[in-house]
Amino acid sequence: MMDDSPSQKNWLERLTQFLLREPESRGELVGILHSAFERHLLDADALAMIEGVLNVGDMQVRDVMVPRSRMDVIDLATSHAKLIAHAVATSHSRFPVVDGSVDDVIGILLAKDLLRYAVQRQAMDLRSMLRPVVFVPESQRLNVLLKAFRDQRNHMAIVVDEHGSVAGLVTIEDVIEQIVGDIADEHDVTEQLIVQSGHDRWRVQGGVELDELNGVLGTSFERGDFRTLAGLVIDRFGYVPRRGESVVVEGWRLRVIRVDRQRVQTVLLERLPQAVLMESE
Question: What digits encode the pLDDT tens for the residues 107-158?
């Protein structure tokens, strides 16, 4: 039931007056939103999403893209059997298809088109199955990209740098996550806190206690005014890092791979070879 007290009515009147006039600054807008949250007129999720919408206008594609080194691409010359096996292993819904080089992206392959081939046992001409590829500059604003995704009914774009080389890829999910927070799908690992993802590499949830992490991986991370891996990462950066940023701590490279509403959700830990450590000293 809504509180009909004079103070509540005064607040609603001020909020209404504010929304009916043009804000003088973004700071004023953010201030009134936080005040509305403190007065329980907005819940935390609504406030976070509104701030996410405001921030999207300031962010560029390079801030959220999957970098070139982590793109899962399919070469046009890949055999049909290997192509299907790769699609199953990665669980992506879309794949950039290249012709010999990552800088030569010729189209986008949809996993559902592969499924149709596998079910109907038809002869497959990979080139004829490709959807048109969209290229965007890494400096493009996310709000512009989101509108383009919506208008063109597209879900993936290839990001190019100022020289025309492929810098990475970006999906509509990458943009929307900046508004609604991290989107977990059925393939995301949520129940396991520490997962080995390669030789001397582990994917670790930010909330893992450092004592537990040290016990499992044999690391020697020291606790300060923090107890978790996320706290260690933020302490070393001095701020909440963005996805893709990394820092070296005690012989390990800590790369942030998921950030949700100013919380470090997932970190990739990689044990560095001694030679690399000596070069960095």
Answer: 999 988 888 777 766 667 888 889 999 999 999 999 899 999 999 889 999 9
Return left, alpha or beta for 118; rule: phi > 0 is left, psi -120 to 50 is alpha, else beta: alpha
User: 252 pairs with which residues across the strands?
Assistant: 249, 271
Q: Which CATH number fits domain 63-180: 3.90.76.10, 3.40.50.300, 3.10.580.10, 3.30.200.20?
A: 3.10.580.10
Instruction: Determine contact, residues 267/254, Cβ cutoff 8 Å.
Output: yes
More confident residue, 62 or 56: 62
Short-list 61, 226, 78, CA closest to 160: 61
Contact call for residues 145 and 175 (beta carbons, < 8 A): yes
Statement: the pTM of the whole predicted model exceeds 0.85:
no
DSSP labels, 48-64: HHHHHHHHHTT-BHHHH
- In one-letter notation, the amino acid at residue 211 is D
Of residues 194, 186, 180, 196, the one with CA closest to residue 228: 194
Share of residues in the chain with pLDDT > 70 (%): 79
- Can you tell me the mean pLDDT for 20-43? 70
What is the token pair recorded at 111? 């996993």
Longest dimension (CA), the chain: 74
Q: What are phi and psi of 31, to 5 degrees?
A: -60, -45
Q: Where are the domains of the chain?
A: 6-42, 63-180, 194-280
Write out the DSSP string of 77-132: T--HHHHHHHHHHH--SEEEEESSSTT-EEEEEEHHHHHHHHHHT----HHHHPBP
| CATH topology for the 194-280 domain | 3.30.465
